[in-house]
Amino acid sequence: MNGRVIRVLLADDHHLVRTGFRVILETEDDFEVVGEAADGEQVVRLAATAGPDVVLMDVEMPGVDGLEATRRITAAGGGPAVLILTTFDRDDYLFAALEAGASGFLLKNGTPEALIDAVRVLARGDALLAPELTRRVIAKFARPGPAGTTRTQGERLAELTPREHEVLVALAGGATNAEIATDLHLGEATVKTHVSRVLTKLGLRDRTQAVVFAYEHGVVRPGPPRDGSRG
């Protein structure tokens, strides 16, 4: 194999589903499936020991479900990215997954190509939401925050440099690092540094939270996201 190998952990209580995901991923030379889990306890344990870059996480599993497993995996920081995969197109799952720290959310009725692309997106440190899911996140969160937090939010935003503010606006539009680099005439490494500083200054976990923050606090206003938007 040439280049970096993306290590993937599969979590689903249906053996046939895990087998299907494995077959799809292993058609690609840059993927390696490093483990399978049938419940939340097992996936949390393997996430800590198998060294995955990305976890494909089902929501409904026996015992500890996928949402709680995601919370445990992401709580300490520095662990693998979690891609939620579910049959159920439900807003409560979507919002709970984002709050739990998931970096992406896809429905299982998507194409193999969409799954492969999503794993690569998360492995390089981006977050992913389908455009229709981004619109639903914006619809839920694009409203003024609690009155008591206004001053703190303003102070956070005031810490951003003009360039960092531009990057936050681009993130809210669903742009990837490569797209931001092109739009702002910067190198991708520079963009990655700006993104990291934006997240740190605003106290955010990932790019998806940056999208929510930008709309919730009026940095940008709801409008059509980019096609193929990544939160």
Low-confidence stretches: 144-151, 227-231
Largest sheet properties: 6 strands, parallel
State the helicity in percent bands: 40-55%
CA distance, first residue to last residue: 30 Å
Report the order of strands and helices.
Answer: EHEHEHEHEHEHHHHHH
Mean pLDDT: 83
Overall form: globular
- Number of extended strands: 6
* Overall structural domain count: 2
Q: How are strands sequenced across the largest beta sheet? A: 2-1-3-4-5-6
What is the CATH homology-level superfamily of the largest domain?
Response regulator
CATH hierarchy, class of the largest domain: Alpha Beta
CATH topology of the largest domain: Rossmann fold
Could you write a compact summary of the structure shown?
This protein is α/β, with parallel strands linked by helices and 231 residues long. The protein has helices spanning 15-25, 40-49, 66-75, 91-100, 112-123, 131-141, 150-158, 162-172, 177-184, 188-202, 207-216, and strands spanning 6-11, 31-37, 54-57, 81-86, 104-107, 128-129. The chain has 2 domains: 6-131, Rossmann fold (3-Layer(aba) Sandwich), CATH 3.40.50; 142-216, Arc Repressor Mutant, subunit A (Orthogonal Bundle), CATH 1.10.10.10.
Question: Which tags fit this structure?
Answer:
2 domains, 51% helix, 231 residues, Rossmann fold, alpha/beta, single chain, Arc Repressor Mutant, subunit A
Blueprint of the fold:
Blueprint: E1 6-11, H1 15-25, E2 31-37, H2 40-49, E3 54-57, H3 66-75, E4 81-86, H4 91-100, E5 104-107, H5 112-123, E6 128-129, H6 131-141, H7 150-158, H8 162-172, H9 177-184, H10 188-202, H11 207-216
Parallel strand pairs: 1-2, 1-3, 3-4, 4-5, 5-6
Helix pairs in contact: 2-3, 3-4, 8-10, 8-11, 9-10
